[in-house]
């Protein structure tokens, strides 16, 4: 029996304070909200939980090893009583989470607008996440038992660490399947050159526009405005640029209610499609939907790599469709980690 593939998620861990409200108050306005609850969160830990839950083929069986690497504040009661147990119950190892002295665990204040179909607004205090800045230390944790099959990263730890990890893991001598979701996008952006050799890039419409904002070669045909829907022809043009300029094998753009677009460079061919969104009866909360998608897609890639060396012959349509379905289940539930479905569901 072959060993289970390993996913290591390097990223943020937060405590989420979620306030649900009939509408968002205006400047200077005090409004009675519906409720306030405390949840485990952080894009890194959300995606780790999504990977862990996706790996459950039954309530007691998990076919992918998932490990979290990051930092929290030492002696944080919310980490000990809420965040750590949630990760572990979702099948995620927390051995790589450092408990740092002299800093608080990262927090996110999330306002869920019930009058706007569950749309959310988020305020983040980085806390310990901002201290994940020792590249050598992070690399040591990420490669402690050899290279993992898949590394998943986001944008809620220092930019210098993320760019350093991209260089290290995408180098020819240490080629690893990295799935990078630059969310939230760093204020300074992500240079296209930093993505050289990346296996998978996952962005939403906003992040896609931000990524290309400073690309001079594309200025003759500008990227669509935020109030416009990105067309397939525009997505084809942008992903062709990424395949050619940075050698990225797979680019996925999540488009909310419009669905998910993917472009997969396989040999001399480009496998491209726009998969429609899964229709749901009622959207309760969109928090965590993007992280659910990333986690499920990463798990599908890890399963593929356990059978076949390299991304060639990956059934990308099936992987994207399953991740899309998991995200659709997520938005029908409240919360971030709690709303992520298990694979056997």
UniProtKB/TrEMBL annotation:
The keyword Transferase applies. Its cofactor is Mg(2+). Pfam families: PfkB. Substrate binds at residues 14-16, 42-46, 156, 291. Residues 9-341 form the Carbohydrate kinase PfkB domain. Transmembrane segments: none annotated. It is an enzyme of class 2 (transferase). CDD domains: ribokinase. Activated by a monovalent cation that binds near, but not in, the active site. The most likely occupant of the site in vivo is potassium. Ion binding induces a conformational change that may alter substrate affinity. ATP binds at residues 204, 254-259, 290-291, 324. This is Ribokinase. It comes from Cladophialophora immunda.
